Structures are given as structure tokens and as C-alpha cells.
């Protein structure tokens, strides 16, 4: 394949294979004012870190026009630092071969696209099947900012473990986690199918205050058109996607006023959402570690650590805590879902939930091809 016909994805792994740098490449493309259409299977002769995707869902069209380019220079340059997990699929899986892969997934923006109504962030059937298939091959958990029951309502898969409220509400198998912190907040429960589970809820004591705060927030913001307040059980989301821009500041002031009355809570920001949660030392990263432990993947030695490969896919700021945990473990694959350059601790990237779907499908296929 001629150099100038290479796909952006191949270019994203340029660093790994010391081919042309994305910036130089982009410049060349600008000069040619070319239009590239990348579809599925491509010639992989020149790069082992390239995509051999063969499902139709993975169609990426990049227009490189001088006006309004989809794959802009910043993004392409960013891709060289955070290559596409699809392009680098073989490398990722080769590194994981013979090891135990554990899959962690965020929900909104990862398994379902970001939509304007939080109650309608449904998961597509192909995505559900892909997650189900992945969970048949690898232990799989979904860690979301939503309440655990809400995520389950969307996903509806019994095979998967769920952590809601940014990891502050986990339902896991009955193996005991060893740390005293974990034991303190664990409760054994039996689900509707008579299966035993352990719920871990480190923010239990905050529930009465959260209830009061919800009411107060509703009262204080009901005058602002477009505000949606979502009860995520151990945390609260104040959505402003439908609020007029001139009202953003007023809304934030109201939220801050309420927060002042509740000093044990703090606010973080997500995608057009203000998230309020108890100020405890527990986040999605801790949830990942807790789940690894309860799943029996606690590393007692460096060798054991090397034998487990956690993979985390997420799109939001709160997922960064999990990426950092993987980074500090020095093992595993943190993958960010974004189509824009972002400051992140993730090593790899996927553009959107469609690419997440392709990645998950390929994981299952890879496992079937290599282990059966
Ligand atoms: O950890 P996550 O599963 O990614 O949850 C984070 C927040 O996601 C949801 O809000 C976001 O998605 C909505 C639906 O697409 C969108 O309307 C909203 O603007 C986004 O911020 C969820 O509603 C929040 O409660 C979660 O905290």
C-alpha cells in the first residue's frame, strides 16, 4: 500500500512502528486536499499495529479537507500518544495471551451513546450481545456513575457484575475481600434466583443526607428551565444539557449553595452534568481493585500480578481514576473513548461506542480462535 493511502488508524500507531509522524502525514494530506475513505479490511502489509476489522460496524470515514476536517491535526497528533485499541488489537491481545483478562466497562458514552435524555440512554441489542459474549469468555464488570439498579435496567445481563454510584455500590460474588475497609461495608445478600452475593456500599451512612439534599436541590433549581436531577443512590447528578447557557452560572451557584450545607459532599463535573457525591476515598479505581480482589485476582506476588490483564474502557473524567490504577499496576490496558484529544491517563483509545462494539466483538472472536 502506498504510504499516502494508509489509514489514520495505521498512522495512530506510527510511534510504535516508526513510520511517518501524524503531523507530517497530515501536512502532506493537506497539500493534496485529499479525501480518504477507510472501510473495514485494509492491507496490513506495512504495519502489524493495524486494523483487520471485518465487521461492518467499524466503518470510519475521515475527510481531510482544508475546511472542517473530521480528523483534525490535534486529534491525529494525540492519537500517536493514545493509539487506537482497534489498530493495536493484535498487540494488546498478544500481550494478554496465556493470561487472565478481566474486562471493566463504563456505561454512558461507552456502551451507549451520549443522548439528550439520561433516561433514554439505551444500549443497542448488538452491544448487549457483544457484552454478553465477552462475559462468557472473561470476567466482566460494568462500573458506572448511575445507580446500580438503573445500569442493570439498561444492560439486563445476569452474567455481568455491576458497580453503581461511581463504584460506591458493588454487587459481587461472595468471596471475601481481605482489606478491613472492604469487610466493614460488605453485606451478604441472596438475589431473586437464590444466588448469594456480597454488596459493598462504603457510603451507606450518607443515605439520609443524600435524600435531604435531593429534595433541596430540586427546590432550589426548579425555577431554572431544563435542569434534570438524577438520583444515583449514593450520588446525585444535576444535568444541565437542556439549560440555557445564560443560566449555567445561576445553576452552579444554587448547587454550590446547597453543597455548603452539606460539607461532607463535593461536586465534580462530567458531560453537561454536575455530580455530587460523598467525600470518601472511594472511586472507580478503588472499585476496580475491589472487584479484582473479590474475583480472586489479588496479586500476592509480582508474577501473579503479571498473569492478570485488566482492561478498562471508559469515556468520562471519573474513569480516569480507574485508568490511573491500571497505570500504577503497570499491567493492563486503559482505553479511553473519545473522538477529541483529551488529557488522560489511558494508553489507548476508541472513538465512540461503535468502536467499543467492534473491539468487544473482536475480543470474543480472538478468545474463541485461540482457546477452543
Ligand atoms: O459513569 P457513567 O456510566 O459514564 O455515568 C456518568 C453519567 O452518565 C449519565 O449522564 C451522561 O449521559 C447521559 C445519557 O447519554 C447524558 O444525557 C448526560 O448529559 C451525560 O452526562 C448519567 O445520566 C449520569 O447520572 C452519570 O453520572
Automatic annotation (TrEMBL):
CDD domains: HAD_TPP (cd01627)
Cofactor(s) the record lists: a divalent metal cation
GO biological process: trehalose biosynthetic process
Catalytic activities: alpha,alpha-trehalose 6-phosphate + H2O = alpha,alpha-trehalose + phosphate
Pathway: Glycan biosynthesis; trehalose biosynthesis
GO function terms (MF aspect): trehalose-phosphatase activity
UniProt entry keywords in alphabetical sequence: Hydrolase, Stress response
Listed SUPFAM superfamilies: HAD-like (SSF56784)
Pfam families per record: Trehalose_PPase (PF02358)
Keyword Hydrolase annotated: yes
EC number of this enzyme: 3.1.3.12
NCBIfam families the record matches: HAD-SF-IIB, T6PP
Database matches in PANTHER family: TREHALOSE 6-PHOSPHATE PHOSPHATASE
Family to which this protein belongs: Belongs to the trehalose phosphatase family.
Role played: Removes the phosphate from trehalose 6-phosphate to produce free trehalose. Trehalose accumulation in plant may improve abiotic stress tolerance.
Protein name: Trehalose 6-phosphate phosphatase
